[in-house]
Amino acid sequence: MNDLTIQQEKRLLFHMRAFYFLSFFAIGGLFPLLSVYLQNEVGLSGGQIGTIMSIGPITMLVAQPLWGMLSDYTRSPRILLTIAVIGTGAIGLMYVTTELYPALIFIASFLALFQSAIIPLSDSMVMNHVHKRGGDYGRIRMWGAAGFALSVWVMGNLSDWFGQSVIFYAFALVLWISAYFAVKMPKESALPRVELLSGLKELVKVPKFVLFLVVTFLVFGPIMANNFYFGLLIQFAGGSLAGVGLAFLLAAGSEIPFMRWAGALIQRQGIMVILFVAAFVSGLRWIFYFLGPSPELIYVTTVIQGLSIGLFIPAALQYVRNLAPEEVKATAVSLYAAVGNGLGAFFFTFFAGLLIDWQNILYVYLFYGVATLIGAMLLLVMVRMEKRVV
Fold it and tell me: CA-to-CA distance for 213 and 332, rounded, in angstroms?
């Protein structure tokens, strides 16, 4: 590379990192605190909160493939990404205009429609650029985790000082700033084509893949849903909004080193061992929260999230790719994401809201713990299946 090319590559690397940091900062500052806002400021019931919070995952399940097709058709992923972040910010501001439950449902749906483009479009551009030019996707994507972790802490404190509606103004402002970097993302984009029907026919012939989808639903669903209810748990235990931010800072921040170590640990211990340990520890964490610990104990145990999520996500993705035949790997990864981020997140978010109305937030974590430990036991069944094959 000549000096000019090196400088261009450095600028591009800075733009990618800045986009991830800002976009995840915006997301992290809104969604972990949104349920608290809906309960404290709007006065919604648990069932109503669960409905609003679960709309996002199920809408994204439908909307993400549409954005992918639009990107393929227009060949303008940077423009689409810029439109998505500007639109998401503008729609997020609509939350401060109403407290009517039907209107809030509409806003949540409309927001998810635009937000569903942000991660797949940016990921596809960055991954394709790294594939062509070299580099480490994880070291770029890590800036998103840092933005998310820092954001909840910052916005939790700002909410204590200026009122909870500040989360919507900050959400919009930061996303609009990220639009500048969206325009400067890499031009390359190659979202993998997914042949769903033909892929499904191939994948149902792999029993371990089908069983692992059930594990993903049981383990990853509560992990995703926890992002929406963790703030309510801390407030129930007597913590402040600043405490909610501190807990998320510790939890999300702890994921970063474990994600960096995941590859070496998987190679050393084996992928099934890592998946089981991550799932089992996650289940124990949810059961511990059911016992009603103090805010201080919750803060201390949030670092367990690094061990559970920081290891489960990379190990699960690698396991899915290993299981799937070459010609349907893209379909397998899409199904895995749909079951965990979509169906699992929707199910455990929606029914958690009903549990809050029936009992309280502690029983949500009993629900999460039992489901996750069942998922961990299914991983042991899969280990026995593999031993029989050998």
Answer: 10
